[in-house]
Fold this sequence. Notes:
The chain is an alpha+beta fold. It has helices at 10-22, 78-85, 97-108, 128-131, 134-141, 168-175, 219-227, 236-247, 263-269, 275-282, 315-331, 367-372, and strands spanning 72-77, 148-154, 159-164, 183-185, 204-209, 212-216, 252-256, 292-300, 303-311, 345-353, 356-363.
Amino acid sequence: MDGARAEEGAAKRHVARVVAVAMTMATVAASCSSTAGSTRSTSAGNGAGGGPLESLLSRMPTTVDFNGAQYAFVLGDVDAAVEASGFTRPAAATATDDEIAKWRLQLAALGGTEPQPSVGFTLPGTLSSATDRPVAAASALGWSVLDIHRFIWDLWGTLTVLDIDASPQALTAAVGEPTDDVWAIGDEGTSFRWSLQQPALTSVRMSLHDGLLACAGSDAPVRAVLAGGATLADDPSFVEVTRSLDSTGAYYAVVLRPNRFSIDAFVRMNPRASQAKIDERLQQLVPNTFDALGIGYSVRHGERVTTFVYHHSDAAAAAANAPVIEDLLRNGLSIKGNRPFSDSFTVESAVATGNLVIVTVTGNVRTVSLVSNVENMTVSK
């Protein structure tokens, strides 16, 4: 995917690389606008219960067709990431493309201690086609990437919901009048996409209600947000893992429903693997059954901390799975490259608490890559 254009050459190219590595997703839109007449609620959770991440669950409707993809969602609290970074957010009305690229680079490196740290925070991968030209995108779309407070999107790019300072007047001025409360540019597509160079490839659908901007490539997902109804907040397992991550101060997370382990993922990632390597892989640890997983980033004393929260059917299942998960994270091998996880991160603790297993690690963890690469820590027997 496209990343931000670089900050003064090398920095800009680094933004592009880290965003591309972390977000192998479909492209979508964003950028800068007026907030006059904003519909955003001023309450902390924008009307939803729970902490910053937990309250985002109520923004994602479960009536959307996610095209049979893995049930995985990325949640982010931009305000918390900005506060943790200590860097000032540029003003949407005056920021240049280069200033926005520099700000994104600062957030991407949040909590990283390596010379070129892995991504610690990034805006939705569905926005990547617009973050390269954020000022032009703001003019075309009627809202600014710099005005996003929080977000949730499905990992495969079907629907993105932003808690944002935006107004229907600004959207109409940029896009034109909505049709039944949906603003549209271009033909429908599988994911939200805005392209300055190739307008014919643009597929933009947006709806705005109570400060929530729904973005998709087709009508149905954004209309699902407008219609209300069942959301991820109705899933007790997702609520418990995000609540646990909120308690750690996490500002960025992935929550998912695990797939069953399959050796096929290893074979796809390692097409030249010998039968002996495949047989060896089959002997690797795989967690016992769990029904939800949350992986979140927080910062402690300037260092990035990653927390894995595994949800189980009951406390007994969690207690039985805790040593298996700990052994896997301490001694297991990655799907891609067949390398020890210990080369990337260090396990600090692994404890069973009720029906949760909570593992805390430090080091170079790439949460979205773990999920999209179907690592054995994110699947179950």
